[in-house]
């Protein structure tokens, strides 16, 4: 770990403090070093890098976009074992990048952020952490949106006598041959239920709403087989955005593809009806699997088409009134996405927290900077996700934006604070463009949409290529200089 100098208060000081060592944090660290910037620290509460790919180790965990799109463009992985990389391979890739790029020298593992406060007089971020204070000229949050498990409020859950855990906190000592209850039918459930069906004595899946599932076509690469090119796959993925526009022929074609997959894999019309969503494909996260539907038809697997309403002893009680005796409860119930807990810890100008600023839903300019929070950059935050493409497409553009902002800061005497007008204009643009998408018009409730305001706050409502073209290079125009600040 590189040594930090001290600020006037005796605390360790770095130029850039990064919170989170997942794909965004490690990618930023690599690019900082390549740019000759070594005065930075990456705080990570866990004992390893990898983010969601470190935390999620449930059976069957894998990428749900082609592997070739799930590596940094500046450091591609040429040897993925499968079309859709297993989670452990992605985790190893992040570890390898951290070592190869020297990012590991800047890691502060086992270090949780407990608070961050902007000091206007010193133009500095003062951080409190589980391992002591730290200050920085620039603060970058790279905590991701899939880092805080969401645990449902089910009466009696705390009294369940067996094992109970979230899918992102998998019990790796779980023996085979148990009766397992799975709550949820999202992306994690679609991957883990087929694996549980092979290992458990029985599995009951409690489904509040069915997901749309598309064919996956996963397979192992043959030795020496050429992998598809990243650029070609990226262009192909971006064309899928048209299917996220409500009422288009592309949307209709995607629905027909999903319906055909369901018809082909579920011959029983009654079960098929239970598995048919009543909302547009893509309104919720579209899933990819060739073994989800077959798993639900295994003799030891039961689909319960209603949500859990109580836990009574070892019985899981569904809204339908059905009761299921289980030994294990797996909560495949997603994450805290629209109201990220880290926002409570970050305090900007006027003693306002980021959570307070986002009381009506997350907002930003360029999905990266927020008015009232100078020298703060949020990676993988407001409207930075993609509902049709790899998250790395936006993350890499944001990293380029941050590097440009650092160059601008070096050349000027004033902190960077985006104007309120720029943030408001960007928010209006997001809202206007989101209005025509299946995410708002598709007839569902999803974790893409803020539950209080009804705004689309997680996804960029456009193509990845457009985001890169507009925001991969820093533009100082929306950052007015304070009155009286000299120019160089």
Topology:
Blueprint: E1 5-6, E2 12-19, H1 23-34, E3 40-44, H2 52-55, H3 87-100, E4 107-109, E5 113-119, E6 124-129, E7 132-141, E8 163-166, E9 179-183, H4 187-199, E10 202-206, E11 213-214, H5 230-239, H6 249-265, H7 269-274, E12 287-288, H8 292-296, E13 301-304, E14 308-312, E15 315-318, E16 323-325, E17 328-331, E18 346-347, H9 354-357, E19 376-378, H10 391-411, H11 420-434, H12 438-441, H13 464-471
Parallel strand pairs: 2-3, 2-7, 3-4, 5-18, 7-19, 8-17, 9-10, 9-17, 10-13, 11-12
Antiparallel strand pairs: 1-2, 5-6, 6-7, 14-15, 15-16
In short:
This protein has 488 residues and is α/β, with parallel strands linked by helices.
Helix content: 25-40%
Q: What's the rounded overall pLDDT mean?
A: 95
Report the count of strand segments. 19
N-end to C-end Cα span: 34 Å
Please count the helical segments. Answer: 13
Main β sheet profile: 9 strands, mixed
Percent in strands: 15-25%
Q: Could you say which structural class the secondary elements and strand pairing correspond to?
A: alpha/beta
Rg to the nearest angstrom?
Answer: 23 Å
Q: Shape, please?
A: globular
Extract low-pLDDT stretches.
none
């Amino acid at each position: 770990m590189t040594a930090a100098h001290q600020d006037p208060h005796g605390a360790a000081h770095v130029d850039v403090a990064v919170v989170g060592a997942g794909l965004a944090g490690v990618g930023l660290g690599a690019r900082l070093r390549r740019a000759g910037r070594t005065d930075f620290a990456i705080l990570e509460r866990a004992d390893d890098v990898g983010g969601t790919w470190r935390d999620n180790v449930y059976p069957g965990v894998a990428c749900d976009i082609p592997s070739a799109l799930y590596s940094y463009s500046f450091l591609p992985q040429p040897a993925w074992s499968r079309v859709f990389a297993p989670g452990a391979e992605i985790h190893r890739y992040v570890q390898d990048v951290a070592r190869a790029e020297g990012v590991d020298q800047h890691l502060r593992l086992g270090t949780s952020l407990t608070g961050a406060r902007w000091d206007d007089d010193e133009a500095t971020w003062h951080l409190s952490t589980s391992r002591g204070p730290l200050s920085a000229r620039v603060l970058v949050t790279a905590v991701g949106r899939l880092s805080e498990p969401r645990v449902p409020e089910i009466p009696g859950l705390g009294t369940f006598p067996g094992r109970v855990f979230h899918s992102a906190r998998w019990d790796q000592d779980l023996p085979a041959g148990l009766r397992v209850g799975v709550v949820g039918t999202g992306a994690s459930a679609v991957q883990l239920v087929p694996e549980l069906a092979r290992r458990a004595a029985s599995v009951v899946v409690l489904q509040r709403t069915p997901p749309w599932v598309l064919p996956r076509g996963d397979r192992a690469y043959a030795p020496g087989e050429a992998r598809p090119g990243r650029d070609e796959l990226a262009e192909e993925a971006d064309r899928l955005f048209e299917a996220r526009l409500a009422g288009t022929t592309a949307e209709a074609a995607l629905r027909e593809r999903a319906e055909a997959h369901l018809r082909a894999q579920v011959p029983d019309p009654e079960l098929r009806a239970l598995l048919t969503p009543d909302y547009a494909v893509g309104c919720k996260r579209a899933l990819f699997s060739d073994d989800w539907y077959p798993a639900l038809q295994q003799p030891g697997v039961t689909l319960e088409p209603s949500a859990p309403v109580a836990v009574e002893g070892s019985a899981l009680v569904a809204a339908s009134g059905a009761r299921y005796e289980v030994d294990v409860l797996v909560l495949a119930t997603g994450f805290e996405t629209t109201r990220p807990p880290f926002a409570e810890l970050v305090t900007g100008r006027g003693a306002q927290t980021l959570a307070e600023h986002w009381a009506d839903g997350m907002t930003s300019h360029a999905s990266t900077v927020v008015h009232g929070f100078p020298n703060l950059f949020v990676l993988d935050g407001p409207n930075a996700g993609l509902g049709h493409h790899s998250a790395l497409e936006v993350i890499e553009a944001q990293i380029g934006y941050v590097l440009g902002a650092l160059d601008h800061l070096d050349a000027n005497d004033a902190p960077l604070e985006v104007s309120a007008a720029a943030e408001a204009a960007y928010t209006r643009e997001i809202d206007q463009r989101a209005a025509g998408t299946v995410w708002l018009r598709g007839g569902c409730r999803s974790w893409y949409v803020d539950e209080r305001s009804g705004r689309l706050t997680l996804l960029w409502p456009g193509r990845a290529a457009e985001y890169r073209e507009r925001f991969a290079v820093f533009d100082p125009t929306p950052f007015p200089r304070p009155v009286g600040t000299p120019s160089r």
